[in-house]
């Protein structure tokens, strides 16, 4: 039986201070430390449960840079964070009792489909079925086959090297990634 999540009404002071400082530094996305939001992101497609302290929903790459820079501040050395896309991982990869950085809310645009090069440029929060619907108009598709393709994000698929039943024929996610940009 899965254990009941503990009720933690307020985030730890370190995370409350981080969220306040992140807002002060111009973070333009959404930030939440409400118990309801944290409970929703305490689970994924695995059997594990872990309630985060806070959630950041970056609006664009600059917000990710703001998060990365602030985590370099000595005051926040103990801060833990994990990226999250669709929450379809089966091993608890996006679960953390720290800061969840969820790219699915705002960073979900298809930037380009290049028919000649048979490639696409997307933000990390684009859902696989969303990409395939746009690519289908050009006779293309993003091959890794997943049972969760209606909610799995491309960023999450890259993070976990997602694959499914069709991987023997089409390969895993890594076999279809030509280039990526990362904020470290």
**Per DSSP, what share of the residues sits in E-state strands of 2 or more residues?**
5-15%
How many helices does DSSP assign? 6
Poorly predicted runs of 5 or more residues: none
Roughly how many Å apart are the termini?
38 Å
Task: Please give the domain count.
Answer: 2
- As for the CATH topology of the largest domain, it is Uridine Diphospho-n-acetylenolpyruvylglucosamine Reductase, domain 2
Biggest pleated sheet: 4 strands, mixed
- From the alpha-carbon coordinates, what is the Rg to the nearest angstrom? 17 Å
| Average pLDDT number | 94
Tell me, briefly, the overall form: globular
Helix content: 25-40%
What does this structure look like?
Strands 1-2-4-3 form a four-stranded mixed sheet, covered by helices on one side. Strands 5-6 form a two-stranded antiparallel sheet. The chain is an alpha/beta fold and 184 residues long. The protein has two domains: 13-102, 2-Layer Sandwich (Uridine Diphospho-n-acetylenolpyruvylglucosamine Reductase, domain 2), CATH 3.30.43; 110-176, Uridine Diphospho-n-acetylenolpyruvylglucosamine Reductase, domain 3 (2-Layer Sandwich), CATH 3.30.465. It has six helices and six strands; from the N terminus they run αβαβαββββααα.
């Amino acid at each position: 039986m899965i254990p009941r999540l503990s009720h933690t009404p307020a985030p730890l002071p370190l995370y409350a201070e981080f969220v306040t400082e992140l807002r002060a530094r111009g973070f333009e996305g959404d930030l939440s430390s409400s118990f309801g939001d944290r409970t929703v992101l305490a689970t994924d497609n695995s059997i594990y449960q872990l309630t985060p302290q806070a959630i950041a929903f970056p609006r664009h790459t600059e917000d990710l840079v703001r998060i990365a820079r602030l985590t370099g501040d000595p005051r926040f050395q103990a801060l833990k964070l994990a990226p999250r896309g669709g929450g379809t991982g089966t091993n608890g990869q996006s679960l953390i009792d720290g800061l969840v950085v969820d790219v699915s809310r705002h960073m979900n645009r298809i930037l380009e489909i290049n028919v000649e090069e048979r490639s696409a440029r997307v933000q990390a929060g684009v859902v696989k079925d969303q990409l395939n619907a746009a690519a289908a108009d050009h006779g293309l598709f993003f091959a890794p086959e997943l049972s969760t393709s209606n909610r799995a994000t491309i960023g999450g698929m890259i993070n976990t090297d997602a694959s499914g039943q069709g991987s023997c024929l089409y390969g895993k996610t890594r076999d279809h990634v030509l280039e990526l940009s990362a904020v470290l």
